Amino acid sequence: MQSFKLSRLPMLAMLAATACGLSQSTAPPAAKVPQNEIRVALKSGRSVVLVVQPSGKPEASEAYGDWAEYLNAFAAQEKSVKIVKLTGRRYSELVTSPQLSKPYNTLFLRDAGHGLLYRGMIREPEIYVRGKAYMTGKPGPDPAQRTGLEEVKLNIRP
Fold it and tell me: Are 83 and 75 in contact (CB under 8 A)?
């Protein structure tokens, strides 16, 4: 008859883990799935503006400076508006349409399904005034006005 010697190492490891408050059945915590920050913002009851911009170091151009200045002025004046800044990549993870063709975009959301899109950097304060009016239920601008704003259907992932 053959005899087997059991190694004490696994048993000692189990005893040490138990003494430290751990057990073999303790699994690492599941990775927390990030919430869709657009849906969270919409649930807040505030008007929501999505600002999509490239990741990385900001541009050092006059156009970028004007864009940032007008956006910051709008944010300071409209405290009731929730501004959600996203990279293009994060936007693509959260929204299936509209697709964006420029690195800078601004979406004024009326609700989870409708928005007013400006493709590019907003460098005219009047665009923010029109976007704010749209979010509060006023009709979108007439396409003949050539403001650069377009009414879009929005499809946000769950």
Answer: yes
Enclosing domain of residue 106: 37-156
**pLDDT digits 0-9 by tens, 59-70:** 788 999 999 999
93-133 pLDDT per residue, tens: 999 999 999 999 999 999 999 999 999 999 999 999 999 99
Q: Are 103 and 125 in contact (CB under 8 A)?
A: no
Rounded-to-integer distance, Cα 102 and Cα 106, Å: 10
pTM of the model: 0.74
6 domain residue, yes or no: no
Q: What domain count does the chain have?
A: 1
Assess if residue 109 is contained within a domain.
yes
| Three-state DSSP state, 18 | helix
